[in-house]
């Protein structure tokens, strides 16, 4: 099988110009009925953020993105996977209205999205917290 040619990746020096986002879950349900996390990470600073979600509908994703943008500001690019919640017409229209370019991660290469490492850290922390509190 012929490998795809390597592409040069631009160096991003401006903080929060490019964010990587993804969904973690389903997780054990919280008292607030949240079972998922929308995770976001700045590509240049590696600043992470996580927003709890009850579901992964496009409307919930957009509400969570608004929370992220209110803290970090509007990015120029948003890297995400090809999940239907990220590729829905509603989500694409929302990003287009704010002039945010969509960049999609490779389907079979989750490591191409930097936020995936953050997922492992979050899951580890949640296990420790649940163990300490004696809850699931």
UniProtKB/TrEMBL annotation:
Residues 6-136 form the Integrase catalytic domain. InterPro entries: Integrase_cat-core, Retrovirus_Pol_polyprotein, RNaseH-like_sf, RNaseH_sf. GO terms for biological process: DNA integration. Pfam families: rve. Gene3D superfamilies: Ribonuclease H-like superfamily/Ribonuclease H. It comes from the Eukaryota. GO terms for molecular function: nucleic acid binding. This is Integrase catalytic domain-containing protein.
